[in-house]
């Protein structure tokens, strides 16, 4: 049976359950169950490869014990899940082996939403059709994962965890991580940048499982659902002990990041448009204090990079033209790093989660910026926006790739000196000097609504900036 058929079957079963309310809960339910099945299948592999391997999960709570038992169903099954299984997994000893830490971190803030034990049994039976210990079936999770991410994109605020695969792949290819380099995503969401980095490094090496790679790739995520997704996906990428921590780096003292805590590469799409809890900004120097999450993450990323370290970060337009604290953050960035490239993305790349225009910033730490190259990413011929059914794809970035190592100004690319940027008081919102005026076009109803929505989002950003300035 195909993966698509299995996932569709699970989705249809869960829709009948009165306890599962909406996409976000259904996705969370599917993922924790998949995690337990995957963990069970991986344990079979670990027992054969790791001397004296001991499961952190007591025998009665292992998937192969209760999920295979067809007599455990109905009210008895739900009672077992809620009263026995979850309390046991949430109370695992963190001082145990590495696998126990992973399981406990996954289940600390995970919940069972299903109420009907008969439907629950049907879902289990569908999941058991996949053997994640089998090399062929392992790749099936990639399809499941992509399916879940596409659903997340439409699941209200949960869309913030999803960065289009084309963007993550392009950013990773341009930063070009190599084996032995430490790679971090400080707001890793579902792990797109990390898995793309793993795949990129492995293109140049024969070993499927690489201990050095596993030790060098790290992610931090504070919310439970994306943390669970990221951990599960890295396990399927051959990481026995994924280094994905449930934490918030913004809550740590800014000056504590030094020495062996610094990294070679950072790839990230930090959450923007939101604010951190009161007091978080006090971890940062006075001149950089703000409640805007993306701004705090950017100044933290500059701090976290080693000398000659490389970074690629997704940021909204508001950062480019923002003043006040944002001006000081941009001064710091351009003084300590070479911000060599800004890829300006068009509207709709992150639809339907947000219509705010975004930019990809590429910089290296250790040398100040002398000039910034801009590249305006165009829509494909015949398109005026991106949609759920017509997302951005990797082939569209061939324009940037062909230009990247042989840079010349053209219809899409231009450069601006640091002298001119300082004259603009570090306003980086600079349009191409080569774009002439175009004939006015008749806009469709959908395009008018989209532009109105974008104007509303921009107004909210400006109001937030004014609030910070006049506090």
Question: Would you mind describing this structure in some detail?
Answer:
The chain is of the alpha/beta class. The chain folds into two domains: 3-134, N6 adenine-specific DNA methyltransferase, N-terminal domain (Ferritin), CATH 1.20.1260.30; 150-434 and 442-469, Vaccinia Virus protein VP39 (Rossmann fold, 3-Layer(aba) Sandwich). It has 18 helices and nine strands. α12 links the parallel β2 (217-221) and β3 (243-246). α2 (22-49) runs parallel beside α12 and α13 packs parallel to α15. The longest helix has 28 residues, at 22-49. The chain is globular, with a radius of gyration of 24 Å. Mean pLDDT is 85; it is low at 437-443.
Name of the CATH first level of the largest domain = Alpha Beta
Work out the count of structural domains: 2
Quickly give the structural class: alpha/beta
Shape designation: globular
Q: What is the alpha-carbon Rg in Å?
A: 24 Å
Averaged pLDDT: 85
CATH superfamily of the largest domain: Vaccinia Virus protein VP39
User: How do the strands line up in the largest sheet?
Assistant: 3-2-1-4-5-7-6-8-9
Strand content: 5-15%
Contiguous low-pLDDT stretches (5 residues minimum) are 437-443
Individual helix count: 18
Helix and strand run: HHHHHHHHHEHHEHEEHEHHEEEHEHH
Helix proportion range? 40-55%
Oligomer: single chain
Largest β sheet strand count, sense and barrel closure: 9 strands, mixed
Present the secondary structure layout:
Elements: H1 3-15, H2 22-49, H3 63-66, H4 74-90, H5 98-107, H6 117-127, H7 135-138, H8 140-154, H9 165-175, E1 183-185, H10 192-202, H11 211-216, E2 217-221, H12 224-236, E3 243-246, E4 263-268, H13 293-304, E5 305-316, H14 317-321, H15 325-336, E6 337-344, E7 358-365, E8 371-376, H16 398-404, E9 413-417, H17 418-423, H18 445-469
Parallel strand pairs: 1-2, 1-4, 2-3, 4-5, 6-8
Antiparallel strand pairs: 5-7, 6-7, 8-9
């Amino acid at each position: 049976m195909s993966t698509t058929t299995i996932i569709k079957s699970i989705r249809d079963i869960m829709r009948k359950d009165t306890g599962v309310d909406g996409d976000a809960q259904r996705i969370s339910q599917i993922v924790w169950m998949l995690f337990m099945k995957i963990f069970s299948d991986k344990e079979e592999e670990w027992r054969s490869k790791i001397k004296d391997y001991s499961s952190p999960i007591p025998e009665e709570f292992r998937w192969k014990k209760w999920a295979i038992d067809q007599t455990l169903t109905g009210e008895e099954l739900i009672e077992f899940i809620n009263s026995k299984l979850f309390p046991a997994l949430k109370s695992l000893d963190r001082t145990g082996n590495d696998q126990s830490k992973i399981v406990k971190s996954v289940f600390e803030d995970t919940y069972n939403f299903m109420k009907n034990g008969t439907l629950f049994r049907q879902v289990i039976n569908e999941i058991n059709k996949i053997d994640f210990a089998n090399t062929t079936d392992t790749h099936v999770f990639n399809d499941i994962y992509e399916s879940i991410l596409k659903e997340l994109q439409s699941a209200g605020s949960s869309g913030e965890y999803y960065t289009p695969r084309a963007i993550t792949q392009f950013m990773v290819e341009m930063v070009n991580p190599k084996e032995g380099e430490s790679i971090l995503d400080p707001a890793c969401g579902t792990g797109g940048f990390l898995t793309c980095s793993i795949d990129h490094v492995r293109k140049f090496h024969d070993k499927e499982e690489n201990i050095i790679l596993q030790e060098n790739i790290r992610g931090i995520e504070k919310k439970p659902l994306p943390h669970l997704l990221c951990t599960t996906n890295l396990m399927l990428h051959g990481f026995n002990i994924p280094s994905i921590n449930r934490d918030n780096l913004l809550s740590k003292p800014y000056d504590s990041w030094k020495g062996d805590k610094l990294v070679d590469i950072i790839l990230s799409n930090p959450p923007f448009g939101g604010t951190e809890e009161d007091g978080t900004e006090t971890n940062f120097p006075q001149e950089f204090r703000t409640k805007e999450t993306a701004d705090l993450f950017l100044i933290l990323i500059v701090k976290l990079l080693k000398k000659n370290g490389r970074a690629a970060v997704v940021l909204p337009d508001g950062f480019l033209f923002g003043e006040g604290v944002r001006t000081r953050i941009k001064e710091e960035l351009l003084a300590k790093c070479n911000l060599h490239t800004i890829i300006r993305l068009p509207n709709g790349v992150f639809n339907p989660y947000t219509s705010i225009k975004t930019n990809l910033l590429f910089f290296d730490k250790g040398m100040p910026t002398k000039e910034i190259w801009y590249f305006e990413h165009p829509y494909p011929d015949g398109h005026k926006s991106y949609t759920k059914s017509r997302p951005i794809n990797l082939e569209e970035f061939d324009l940037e790739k062909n230009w990247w190592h042989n840079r010349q100004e053209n219809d899409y690319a231009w450069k601006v000196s640091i002298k001119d940027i300082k004259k603009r008081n570090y306003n980086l919102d600079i349009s191409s000097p080569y774009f002439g005026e175009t004939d006015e076009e008749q806009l469709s109803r959908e395009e008018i609504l989209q532009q109105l929505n974008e104007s509303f989002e921009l107004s909210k950003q400006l109001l937030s900036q004014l609030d910070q300035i006049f506090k």
